[in-house]
Amino acid sequence: MFEVRVTADFAAAHFLRDYNGKCENLHGHNYKVYAHVRGETLNEGGMLLDFTKLKSVLRTVIGKLDHTNLNDIEYFDQNPSAERIAVYIYENILNLLKKEGEDLSWKGGRGSAWLYAVDVFETDTSRARYMPHP
């Protein structure tokens, strides 16, 4: 089994509804995001997936979140938790890769490679991970 991972970061503000604590107030984070791809088969060039392609797509997705108030993005329904941010990034990476001819959905069309997980760190010690499969 092979795994590749790329990292990118962004800064954004948010607040959490239905949370009894200081995070109900507007505050910000310098988020760090990891995108993981796993698979058993390498391509003709000996790679699972080109780092450059995965990093470019990740940066495009988080570019839409950078320096925003995440509560203003309809997808989060006014409650942009780290878990919801991870799902958002995961789904948008998949969609952009599909437009480029790479189906990395779970059991997708590109051999055995798939977008395994997206990690979103709010701090160095607090991470949420989204994995769409067991």
Overview of the molecule:
- The chain has 134 residues and is α+β, with helices and mostly antiparallel strands.
- The protein contains two helices and four strands; from the N terminus they run ββααββ.
- The protein has helices at 51-63, 82-99; strands spanning 2-14, 27-39, 114-123, 126-130.
- The protein has a four-stranded antiparallel sheet with strand order 1-2-3-4, covered by helices on one side.
- Helix 1 crosses helix 2 (82-99).
- The mean pLDDT is 92.
User: What structural category arises from helix and sheet content?
Assistant: alpha+beta
Shape: elongated
Number of helices: 2
Number of strands: 4
Rg from C-alpha positions? 16 Å
Spatial order of strands in the largest sheet: 1-2-3-4
**Percent in helix:** 10-25%
Strand count, sense and barrel status of the largest sheet are: 4 strands, antiparallel
Order of helices and strands: EEHHEE
List the uncertain runs. Answer: none
The end-to-end distance, rounded to whole angstroms, is: 16 Å
Strand content: 25-35%
Compute the average pLDDT: 92
Quick tags:
134 residues; alpha+beta; four-stranded antiparallel β-sheet
Summarize the structure.
23% of the residues lie in helices and 31% in strands.
Give the helices and strands, then pairings.
Layout: E1 2-14, E2 27-39, H1 51-63, H2 82-99, E3 114-123, E4 126-130
Antiparallel strand pairs: 1-2, 2-3, 3-4
